[in-house]
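User: Predict structure, ligand NAI.
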Amino acid sequence: MKVTKEKLHQLMQDKIEAAGLPKDQAGIVSDVLTFADARGIHSHGAVRVEYYSERIAKGGITNNPDFSFRKTAPSCGIFEADNGAGHVAAKLAMDEAITMAKETGLAVVGVRNMSHSGALAYFVEMAAKEDLIGISVCQSDPMVVPFGGSEAYFGTNPIAFAAPSQDERMITFDMATTVQAWGKILHARSRNEAIPDNWAVDAEGNSTTDSTKVNALLPIAGPKGYGLMMMVDVLSGILLGLPFGKHVSSMYHDLSAGRELGQLHIVINPANFTDLDLFKANISQMLDELKEIKPSEGFTEVNYPGERGRQREENYEKNGIEIVDDIYDYLTGDAIHFDRYDHKNKFAE
Ligand code: NAI
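Assistant: Predicted complex:
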């Protein structure tokens, strides 16, 4: 089913509002989810609405959170999210970080006790639109083995970065620190397909190509990805005094409890380090030079991070966003949720 961006936004907002979030907050959650689907990050768009609605309806996302922000130093602050919607908390915290970085040159803002915040690209692009560099990292539920280990300890702990250029382009780099998302394993499992041997491990910690035997995911690039996901957990968990590593709550364990997750935004004002126009011109030059590089066999061009997502968005603007029929039926139906996620498989099969 193809729908316009506007229609998809309205359907998701209505459902989340019906689940219990006030209209303004449901609007922000829907902004972030629509952004994800429009960029082709379908793993973090409409597919999540039923899960969020179940969690909101059961009280595991606070519908009237007591949000607060306190400055702890000229360039540091803590946003207390009271287990409210992560998308809303992360956006409001980024607003604070942008204001702070404009004033002091730098902002390091931690979000404490939030729920899942979706695709991090949304938040770092807020900074880049204001001629700032945005960096954001967050925790997610433990499902990845440490390098050389056989049991899951860290989450897929993503890292995002955005920087402005002198033209309409922007660098948007946004990735999980695992080779693949859990959803890709489930997809292969549902089709009885094998998976590449660098995606996941079985119960003994051995790499497996059998999607039915997968017990945990592998970090990107072995010890290097393992180090990166550890760094993310230190910055968005331990630094903020929150549960870390295997103590991070599971997305599907108890939907009536708050998730107590952390996220850290770092915003840098380039104007405090170099001439802003020169900075932006050099980013544009870098992107131009990358585009001029002769593609290798099998490639038609070199892309810069975020470019393909924007191309998808332009295509969707013209032709509508493709939404799986089941999800469309759910979004247009009366039911708020079907009690599908609470206390289910640790990774919600
Ligand atoms: P991905 O593997 O699709 O893309 C990773 C990065 O590589 C992106 O910046 C993309 O622009 C770039 N890229 C991809 N193909 C490229 C190409 N051909 N040339 C140049 N650059 C290219 O992303 P991944 O790792 O699957 O993450 C998807 C989303 O999941 C992200 O938005 C992330 O924030 C989100 N996420 C959120 C979590 C949470 O708990 N909130 C947990 C894990 C991931």
